[in-house]
Amino acid sequence: MISILKGQVEKIVVGDKYNMVDVLTDSGVGYRVIVLAKDSYVQGNLVKLFTSFQVREDSQTLYGFATESVRDFFELLLTVSGIGPKIAIAVLSAYSVDDVASFVVNKDHQSLSKVSGLGSKGAQKIVVDLENRLTGLDLKLSKSGVGGNLMHRELSEALKSLGFSGEALKGYLEKAENLLIK
User: Fold this and answer.
1) Are 76 and 98 part of one and the same domain?
2) In a domain, 138, yes or no
3) Are residues 93 and 120 in the same domain?
4) CA distance 114 to 23
5) The domain containing residue 79 runs over which residues?
6) Domain total in the chain
7) CB-based burial of residue 40 (10 Å sphere; 0-12 exposed, 13-18 middle, 19+ buried)?
């Protein structure tokens, strides 16, 4: 299994739903990697990609991501029945991980269904299958993103169960948010 790839970008192939980059490693081996359409790479630059190696009956394909958390979310999308690597890469090319997680938390399958090739039923499957699995996943999301919102909600519920309310609750939540920023 190939999980991290470092090397020089030799060639970039731009597509509609995703791009491909050819990466030449120091050992002289070149890999063609499918990357998100929204990520930009420059020919000749060194890159480090977090990869997901997908083996299918008719192909062996390497998918590359700028961060480990995006790669992990890609692999989480693949656990949804009926969602393959091409649809997962299309979803993450169209939306950030924060956006997709927010759609799942808010049960907003309509926004997800706008991804080319996904459709309404596929978007509903993603929402239903992932809604209970996002809270335990360390997505390393920004404070303003859904990771912060989930943490805020869980902390709020915990403090309420301990009897905090009103201004005291609000004060503790603000303190927690300030700690997250640092």
Assistant:
1) yes
2) no
3) yes
4) 31
5) 68-130
6) 3
7) exposed
- The answer on 126 and 73 residing in a single domain is yes
Same domain, 73 and 125: yes
Q: Which residue has the higher pLDDT, 147 or 123?
A: 123
pLDDT over threshold 80, residue 116: yes
**Which tens digits make up the pLDDT trace of 121-134?**
999 999 999 887 77
Q: Looking at per-residue confidence, does 27 or 106 come out higher?
A: 27
Spatial separation of the C-alpha atoms in residues 70 and 5, rounded to whole Å: 15
The C-alpha angle 90, 78, 111, rounded to 5 degrees, equals 45
Q: Supply the pLDDT for residue 137.
A: 52
Beta bridge partners of 102: none
Q: How far from 153 is each of 4, 72, 101, 168, 178, CA to CA, in Å? A: 34, 23, 14, 16, 15
